[in-house]
Write a structure and sequence with these properties.
Helix content is about 75%, strand content about 0%. The protein has about 290 residues and is mainly alpha-helical. The radius of gyration is 18 Å and the shape is globular.
């Protein structure tokens, strides 16, 4: 891998690193029982700020495309992630989300018309196994609603990533405007759902303010600017496997901040997941 792709890959890895903080922020800082409100604050303020900064709106067919991508990448994904994080142990939720590279590998065949490769599938499976070894404990509880939410979040993100790769980015539109379109669309999608299903917003104390600011600015706007730039520049399979970094970061934060331990099995899974991330960036043997 030459210097330029390596730099792009490193920049695209930053969003999953930031998203890995979602689990500890959700459980330790945010008021429980309001996943839609959390998703709304993570999306809409940053999206509107990006629109005001770039002063660029979609044109023509991109009104519809931005709406679809905003719902898949933001509007559905955010509340599903928060529901999974609240109803499942962080490890279970993280492992379900780690299935996303496998879904991308399947969608790449049907949507992008790429040839299926055992290489991508094997690394995807290795990544899920590795994450599972790191974060699932023997006494992990499996709540049905949480499991459905976790799997649905992986499917929503996978389809969003695949369609983003297929449609690309309009000529002359930068990654900040592109992220702003989708964050705004996803946030607007969440407004009526939040009002209908959750009613009045929760009481927000100072720790929650810090949590919402972190998720909205770092895990929202800044992360998605880098993420969408990476999707358009790198192979979709290589981008998808970077999402495995999120549960690894969550595990490290759990060990450091919540006194959770990482034993030999967890360390083995950590190594396996990192190997899957690196292997997913490389072409299959015999291909250039």
């Amino acid at each position: 891998m030459t210097a330029a792709p390596l730099i792009r890959t490193a920049a695209t890895a930053l969003p999953p690193l930031a998203w890995g903080t979602t689990y500890v922020v959700t459980t330790e800082l945010l008021p429980p029982g309001h996943p839609l409100f959390a998703g709304l604050l993570r999306a809409l303020p940053g999206g509107l700020f990006a629109l005001a900064l770039t002063r660029g709106l979609p044109r023509g067919v991109w009104w519809g495309r931005a709406a679809v991508l905003g719902v898949l990448n933001i509007g559905l994904l955010f509340p599903l992630l928060f529901v999974a994080a609240e109803r499942l142990p962080g490890g279970v939720a993280a492992t379900l989300a780690a299935a996303q590279p496998l879904v991308v590998a399947v969608l790449a065949v049907s949507v992008l018309h790429e040839r299926p490769t055992a290489w991508r599938l094997l690394w995807g499976v290795a990544g899920v196994v590795g994450v599972g070894l790191v974060v699932i404990t023997p006494d992990a509880a499996f709540d049905a609603v949480g499991v459905v939410a976790g799997l649905a979040s992986a499917a929503s993100m996978a389809l969003g990533v695949t369609l983003t790769k297929r449609w690309g980015r309009p000529t002359g539109v930068g990654p900040t405007a592109f992220a702003g379109w989708q964050l705004t669309a996803g946030g607007l999608f969440l407004v009526p759902l939040t009002a209908l299903l959750e009613g009045p917003p929760p009481t927000v104390d100072p720790p929650a303010v810090l949590g919402y600011l972190w998720l909205g600015l770092v895990g929202g706007l800044l992360a998605y600017v880098l993420w969408f730039r990476g999707i358009t520049a790198l192979p979709v399979g290589a981008v998808a496997v970077l999402v495995l970094l999120s549960p690894l970061v969550a595990a490290v934060l759990g060990a450091v901040l919540l006194d959770q331990t990482l034993g030999p099995v967890q360390l083995l899974g950590f190594v396996l997941a990192l190997a899957a991330i690196v292997g997913g960036q490389l072409p299959a043997p015999g291909r250039k």
